[in-house]
Amino acid sequence: MSAQTAPGLHLAAPAGTAVRTRTLHTTHKTPAQRVGAAAWWVAVVIVAILTVFPLFWTLVTSLKPAGDILSGALELVPRTVTLENYERVLTEVPFGRYFLNSMLLAVAGVVLNLFFGSLAGYAFAKLKFRGKRALFVTLLGSLMVPGIVTMVPSFLVLRAIPFAGGNNLVGQGGVGLLNTWWAIILPGAAGAFAVFFMRQFFSSIPDELGEAARIDGASEFRIFAQVYLPLAKAGAAVLAILTFQAGWNSFMWPLIVLNVQEMWTVQVGLASFVTDYATDYGPLMAGTVITSLPVLLLFVFAQRYIIEGVSHVNSR
């Protein structure tokens, strides 16, 4: 039978076959829901503006001549665009040296914090030993102590290291590890957060993998390095990113323990544009833009790992 029908001919549906019709259902929001949605979007826009505006203002200010910075501080479009501030920040201070110092300290902090934090996290997650729970509770309690509280004790410990920096056997007579890279690296070599963070990842890996490796005669360190650590690489990547960010942005501690200008970091070096009587905003903003680039690029390319790691920890 032809698929075409003559005009005016209507084909009835076969017996027992229900004719289905699709209806479009329109969801109507109540006035309260519309107000709530509008308020949510307004709040999102405000938060976005408050977040982006300081970064944009810093970039715009770094491109303004010195005279326009003070006379038109809130102007978001520069009257005259200049790179003079970037030239000054690279020539008036050894900014390249500061940049390399910060990169060295941040990378060293990542390596040590990742290694020791993973070892301790593995021990708390997979090994059985006396006092394990008490030690872990103490570790968690240390996370509640502000870092500013431990600065003076840490400074005194570093200054009293025996046979370092002219010290004698009892740690007297010299400066210890002050004015050395170790004064920055050692205090953060195994942070409490790193131990807790990696412990959460190792706890989610089945114990049967380690037991099978032990039956095969693998040592405990080999089980850690070849069985568990590769499975926790997502957590290790997130920890590395967060550690790098913390080390790169550190200001107070390097300012305290490093008195030699050649060893300053970028954060301490930027403070040289701020004096008791005036602030040189042009080079300061230009240096801030350059200093922010490594961390911003790191977050742009690694934000997926950060979200994955944080959500994993929160789900435990």
From TrEMBL:
Domain of life: Bacteria
Keywords: Cell membrane, Membrane, Transmembrane, Transmembrane helix, Transport
Membrane topology annotation: Multi-pass membrane protein
Subcellular location: Cell membrane
Keyword Cell membrane: yes
Limits of the ABC transmembrane type-1 domain: 99-302
Keyword ATP-binding: no
Name of this protein: ABC transporter permease
